[in-house]
Specification:
By secondary structure, the protein is α+β, with helices and mostly antiparallel strands. Helices cover 48% and strands 23% of the residues. The longest helix has 15 residues.
Length: 150
């Protein structure tokens, strides 16, 4: 049962933008799998799921590429600590950082694997992210702003 449930969880987070354990529970119930909140919480830890910023700027569960399940929090903390301001022009998102922090913030943004960001270039205090579209840039900026304002 556990393997089936965890397999279904991985399938659901790939197919849907699931932001909370409650949403995950509802999706599992819809698929005919009953699980308590404690079980879902344990599954999330065992599967090493993390939250990433989606193209719409909201957080969602995703499989972590890292082995450390706390990496998403670490990336967000680096972003918050280095962040000064940001703006976009067309499909370019520019993040201004504390002097010397742009490379670390850039590494954190890259590691977050934010859908829509094609790549980034960091200087000393400025990070430029190339985004697929201007609409994506605005959406990603809103999502990053939510992370920074936590």
């Amino acid at each position: 049962m556990k393997a089936r449930r965890q397999s279904k969880i991985l399938e659901l987070i790939q197919e849907h933008d699931i932001e909370t354990q409650e949403e995950l529970s509802a999706c599992l119930n819809g698929a005919g799998i009953q699980a308590t909140q404690a079980t879902i919480s344990r599954d999330i830890r065992e599967l090493k799921l993390t939250k990433v910023v989606g193209a719409d700027g909201r957080q969602k569960y995703a499989q972590s590429a890292q082995r450390d399940p706390d990496m998403a929090d670490k990336y967000a903390r680096v972003l918050r600590e280095g962040f000064v301001s940001m703006d976009f022009a067309g499909n370019l998102l520019v993040i201004h950082t504390v002097s010397g922090m742009a490379p670390a913030v850039g590494a954190a943004v890259d590691a977050m694997k934010i859908p829509g960001i094609i790549g980034s270039i960091a200087g000393d205090d400025t990070l430029m992210c190339v985004v697929r579209t201007g609409e994506d840039a605005e959406s990603i900026m809103r999502g990053l702003r939510r992370l920074v304002e936590l």
